[in-house]
């Protein structure tokens, strides 16, 4: 039997060696027919995104580590959980950072309308001296690459990207009426503003209802459930992204909050304050935009780097693990059990004692929100993980999702659940809500004057360590 097997093997080897007409086609030169990867063997180092800190993976006891005074049925029961490493914003997303998102969407919409109006373009000098300068790049480029010609003939890519409608971002936009280059340009730009009949006084204000961000994402949970992949599981969303500034009035009906309603988001005095009035869906849209910035930059490089990892909202367990700062059973991000340090200064921005929004005799107290990074960071280098504003997480708020989730990188996503978990407590909350294990919730389509967010980015398990980015 063994002899027959050896003969069969010899015959198969002979047939392979004779099939190439005398020259071997197996393997590249120098491999001797062996399977040898040609990729570089250097270790991958995760590059730390600007404004983020690396949270090392580990295990911790999740849940209320101190007495639960409310006996809330939705309280977090104790359980041991392991999470992998990830990057996290060192502070809550600020008004200035969110305005970058707003301005990008505003400029994209304006450039698209100008490009449509420009048609085939014209001779404007290429510096925004006529509406013709804002034509689509495909209308102005003479030497298209074969791929661009293919896209032009095919009408765009399958993912919805139309190569014939690429915007020319090098041409400056003129927002001052005194610098409008021509009448056609003025007609397009003025359509983005509120009509005179809707204005208070003579101030020109953008019609923020037009600021919508459209993006696509893959519904992996649905694809896994159906055991399929394809366009059927792509989801497209168009989100109105301007924060709801009326929350300062709606949340407090009998309070004089007009100055915050009128100034909080856009005035430069509040640029380093956490953005509020943002829904859960708007926070997710911001994560997609931040990911797009990294992808677009990578595409612009002559020698592209490894594809960037997307930004997202943290889930509830990741948020609690990061808040604890490496301390087990800690009541607060700084440990505890007190809300003041040894000098009598509060360690977070919250509503102290019996409901005082501010104490004149205590240094560092605020009536409303505080600028980010005004209080000490925790053991992981994170600011304001307790107080200031509560923060959206990606997790639904219910008992089953928290209790029966996995203990290894638990994921409790549920797009259909309207209640989303928010963590950390805020400037309007008493000290109890600042506890690491305290849970709260809000409807994902609701915006509040006391809820903001921060983003995270995964770190590959095989990465050596986080690489610092020079500021």
Q: Gist?
A:
Residues 51-456 form the Sulfatase-modifying factor enzyme-like domain. The chain contains 11 helices and 14 strands.
Structure overview:
- This protein is α+β, with helices and mostly antiparallel strands.
- The chain folds into two domains: 1-94 and 243-471, Alpha-Beta Complex (paralog of FGE (formylglycine-generating enzyme)), CATH 3.90.1580; 98-242, no CATH class.
- The chain has eleven helices and 14 strands.
- The strands form five sheets. The chain has a four-stranded antiparallel sheet.
- Helix 2 packs across helix 5 (183-190).
- The longest helix is centred in the N-terminal third of the chain and has 24 residues, at 95-118.
- It is globular, with a radius of gyration of 28 Å.
- Mean pLDDT is 84; it is low at 4-22.
- Keywords: Lipoprotein, Signal.
Radius of gyration: 28 Å
The CATH topology annotation of the largest domain reads as paralog of FGE (formylglycine-generating enzyme)
How are the strands of the biggest sheet laid out side by side? 2-5-13-8
User: What would you say the CATH architecture of the largest domain is?
Assistant: Alpha-Beta Complex
**CATH fourth-tier homologous superfamily of the largest domain:** paralog of FGE (formylglycine-generating enzyme)
Based on CA inertia axes, which overall geometry fits? globular
Q: Quick check: average pLDDT?
A: 84
Helix content: 10-25%
Q: Main β-sheet, in a few words?
A: 4 strands, antiparallel
Note the gap between the termini: 72 Å
Per DSSP, the total helix count is: 11
CATH class bucket of the largest domain: Alpha Beta
Helix/strand/pairing class, anyone?
alpha+beta
**How many distinct folded domains?**
2
Number of strands: 14
What is the element string, with H for helices and E for strands? HEEEEEHHHHEHEHHHEHEHEEEEE
The proportion of strand residues reads 5-15%
Which regions contain 5 or more consecutive residues with pLDDT less than 50?
Answer: 4-22
